Amino acid sequence: MAEFTHFDKQGKAVMVDVSGKDITERTATAAGSVVMQPETIAKIVAGGVKKGDVLSVARLAGIMGAKRTPDLIPLCHPLALTSVTVDLSVDEARSAVDIAATCKLKGRTGVEMEALTAVAVAALTIYDMCKAVDRGIRIADIRLVHKAGGKSGEFRAG
To answer: Model pTM?
Structure first.
């Protein structure tokens, strides 16, 4: 079984030393959903949410979240991201907005946390913009779906 990397031999939290790792292209994609009442989805699609265009604002928030990951998650390295994409799609049958975020860079450490943070911040933004009409909104199933690059190679969720 793999060991935790963010603790030293005395059990103290540490930032992982990545200086010995090779610089490689690294990508990560995360996904999640925001589930709500059908009436709330209808308002989003119709542009009837008073705070504005929910999907556009959530996309921008997700991108900003990825860029701010080391400010939000302790021990994350500040990274020079080369690309962040956040895609949102409405699934009216499930009464949900599905979010996928992909982050890329050339560096010594992966971008999984940045992709996960992008999805989480986009989902929280949707909640914030719609909570006045639907307090029962659920943020669901935020997860890593793909990662590539680095010594550990490729991961694809099954």
So the answer is: 0.93
